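New to this. Help decode the following:
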Amino acid sequence: MQNSASSKEHPTDKLYDVVIIGAGLAGLNCALTLQERGFSALLLEAQDDIGGRVRTDNVDGFLLDRGFQVFLTAYPEAARRLDYRKLDLQAFLSGALIHTNGRFIRLTDPFREPLAFVPMLASDIAPLTDKVKVAFLRQRLMSTTLPQVFKEKDRPIEEKLTADCGFSQTIVERFFRPFFGGITLDKTLSGSSRMFEFVYKMMAEGSVVVPRKGMGAITRQMAEGIAPGDIRLETRVKAIDRKNCQVELESGEIIKTRAIVVATEGPEAHRLVPEIEKPASRHATCLYFSAPKAPLDEAILVLNGDGDGPVNNLAVMSNVSSEYAPAGQSLISLTVLGETGPIDDQRLSESVLKQMHNWFGDQVNDWKLLKIYRIHHAQPDQTPPWLAEPSRSVRLNSGKDNNIYVCGDHRENASINGALASGRKAALAICEDLKVAMA
């Protein structure tokens, strides 16, 4: 996407109804919702492109999402906003391949793959009682509404799995810890059980996919609905003048408006407005390798069921969508959970390749490192009681003179759906407040 590269070169003469700081999912959805209701909005993005954490880079013909990400088609906010047909969504196979005790074992969803039901029952991935409980959990959540899910008692995921659902430690260690640890970026499974049930429900009701041309296609599609010039890139906000309802850019430019939305990730939102609670951060590192031959032929997630080695999960992205790699090449995504800052790229890569050699043998010798993404704020930490209040207010306060709003996944839940919902709610609150002010 091409937009103004410098606020100094393109000062804002137009008076916008709303200035939105941040052009990620929440900010984009806020802007689109405002536009649909007749309000003008200017998006200020500090980075060189839109998307926030949902971006895709092209590196030598390979499409690299900024961190391993998937999209769940059952997300209600996404279905409201996005054109799935144009995204040309490509699905992962249901279930997972789990590497444990030197071999791969398949765990499938018998409701989606009935022919795999008998082999799954015969496998030793977990006791038979666990497999029955997985099916029961799926059916229970499909008959539970989302409001009900977020009213359930919130507790750590591991406690929910063992104490409430009755799962054995075997299936917790082999499946739930790497799978939902990868989703919440927390191997300890200390995150929110509400979030666990929300994601599990979304997976049961829809498909796990990526757009054909990478996750960044989601935000690019959203930006198509915003007028040229209404998004300014590489424009960092220095401070917010709440009294005069204006923002000061690092360039020195002042932009006055009627309402301001802080649509950045949590730590940056706290910097701009200290009243906004700063969430702790979950860290993740994603390594991308090219290979002349894929280590497996399926579009399926591979999990570390033993917990040995740095890699938590692996996916051959070119098996999911051929657009992710040039012809004759494969793209492999590997995720390491937690902070890897003290480890330099070479040592991290060597450690990862050593583990992969144990999994796939000598073919790993032909893998070539493309890029490492160290994402220091991949998600807000949602350890209970963070989601005790599932939706935080998008209004900074309830005072009549308030003109500052906030949205982002830290106001709802750490998901694409949460970010989109928060952006829409902020826009609707502004529409209501501005109309009252005009009256």
Residues 59-90+281-380 form a domain with the Polyamine Oxidase; Chain A, domain 2 fold (CATH 3.90.660.50). The CA atoms of residues 188 and 390 lie 22 Å apart. The longest strand covers residues 368-380. Confidence is low (pLDDT under 50) at residues 1-8.
